[in-house]
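User: Some background: our group keeps a shared notebook of sequences we're curious about, and every so often someone picks one and asks for a predicted structure to add to the entry. Today it's my turn. The entry only has the sequence so far, pasted here. Could you supply the structure so I can complete it?
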Amino acid sequence: MLSHAVAERPLPANLAQERTLGQDNGLSVSAKDNNFGDSEAIEAILVNTNQFYKWFTDLESAMRSETEEKYQHYVDTLTDRIRTCDDILRQVDETLDLFNELQLQHQAVATKTKTLHDACDRLVMEKQRLIEFAEALRSKLKYFDELENITSNFYSPNMNVGNANFLPVLKRLDECISYIENNPQYAESSVYLLKFRQLQSRALGMIRSHVLSVLKSASSQVLAAIQSSGGNKASLSEGVEASVIYVRFKAAASELKPVLEEIESRASRKEYVHILAECHKLYCEQRLSLIKGIVHQRISEFAKKEGLPSLTRSGCAYLMQVCQLEHQLFDHFFPSSSDDVSGLAPLIDPLSTYLYDTLRPKLIHETSVDFLCELVDILKVEVLGEQLSRRSESLAGLRPTLERILADIHERLTFRARTHIRDEIANYIPFDEDLNYPTKLEHSEDVKSETASTDANPDVFKTWYPPLEKTISILSKLYRCLEPAVFTGLAQEAVEVCSDSIQKASKLIAKRSTQMDGQLFLIKHLLILREQIAPFDIEFSVTYKELDFSHLLEHLRRILRGQASLFDWSRSTSLARTLSPRVLESQVDAKKELEKSLKATCEEFIMAVTKQVVDPMLSFVTKVTAVKVALSSGTQNQKRDSVMAKPLKEQAFATPEKVAELVQKVHSAIQQEIPLVIGKMKLYLQNPSTRTILFKPIKTNIVEAHIQVHSLLKAEYSPEEKSTINMVSIEELEAELDNLL
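Assistant: Of course. Here's the predicted structure to add to the notebook entry:
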């Protein structure tokens, strides 16, 4: 058990060394003892048996003693070692106990230290939070604390807008107001906000007074400079562009620029929007007082010396020059507000209104459509189109007035155009020379042949009926001047009344000359009218709306008979439903009506010429058709007894001699009448293709009549009789007609 305990507990290093040394010493002692015994035994002399036994007994005792002593010594050594180990173990256990106690104490100290550290951290955090809270409280309270400082600054006798501290204090005031507005939950915030606003109102009032004072001072300096430079009216009228009006004013009011820039930078707040508008108004009032008289005098001089178109051009150009210079000066003082047209409106509107007031009386009394069209071109193309597009920003304030003038011109032009259409086209009373057709055309052909050698272009309008010329002329002038909707209505009306006027003239010409002249006159002028209105990219149609009360008569009868009640609002025959008029819409297309009239006139002309040439053949074919119908509808006895039962060539109207006579008559008409018709067509219709188109149906009708007669001759007459009739072939007829054209 002891050995087991020793084996389980290793000896300390110093004890293990001692043990090793002891074993070495023991063995040496034993060796010495052994050697000594041997020597002693060798030296002993045995005499007798007793001695031997004694020696042997001593030897055994010695040997036993030596053996036991060695082991005893070893046991003693082990016992000492065990005791030493027990002491060591006891000391180790005590040490371990001390270490355990020390560990417990360390843990206790560590726990207390951690608790203390955590408490310190909490205190540090609490301290930091309190510091931050104090800073936040101080940062919030400083806006409230600024009230006293700002109040003392603004109420200081030395404080004015020109002071270097004015703008920083104003900026601080705005910051305080913004903060309190964003935090209305703070105690007494409304009271502080009211006081701050009072200070802001005082500061803005100081700014307004300062701006007004500086602007008045600058205006006074400019006026004094003008008076000192001569001050006569000529120099004033010529000096609106001079440096004294602009450069001197800019220099005199230069101290306003920092204040105005500061106000513009805060234009997001409504208070500053209001004060900025006030500054704009004050600026415009002072500028207007300087240049109003000069501008009025210059425009008055234009009105006295120049006509309406020249006045419009000169007045607009001069006003645009003034407006551009004023915009440049305004941009110098208000760079951020210069893009806003309303800023300069109090200055530009009175100046442009004076030009408007000068032009309007002249526009109202202007009766010339040409002048009015020229005015539209000046304003629409030169002024609004070219000048304002190039300098749109600086001249934007003039656009409303110029557009107003243009609208008045459009209105006057529309009125004069309607009057012109009514008086010169619809109610035109033709003179004798206007209806002198075809003499007028023949005279024009003679003039054309005489001037052809000199390459002169005769006036093509001389052969036109005057209302047609006036219609085309007025439409060509109005097309680029009026809005499409307005022009469409006028164009529809003009084309409609022009067509009616031409038709009336056609009837008069038919009475004075011939029916053919009237028809060709109408065809000629309707074709010209259709050709001339084709380039206008509009629809010549207008929708008319009118109220129809025709259905009310039956309802009133029912009410008078007692079949319906006047005050029964629940039924469909109530007063509200009964007396509601119907809205009727009707669309009038002048271009379609023109085409319809042209087509009808051409058909009348074609049928008239056809009848004039082949009327005997048409009558002959009609009679033949009547005979055949009568024969086919009667009974067999009636056919046998009837005179009509005879063959066609035996009929009185269809004998070969009669047929030959009518064929000869038609052929003579073709040779005599057709050249006259074609001559008149060439006189009225100069375009060969137009004549070809118009003559083609006539040729077709003539050929068709001959074909029908050829068919009858082939069916009813013998070859000898056909040769006696001597009718031309269809091919020869067509060739003859083509040669005539």
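Suggested note for the entry: Confidence is low (pLDDT under 50) at residues 15-42, 231-237, 452-458, 637-641. The CA atoms of residues 121 and 127 lie 9 Å apart.
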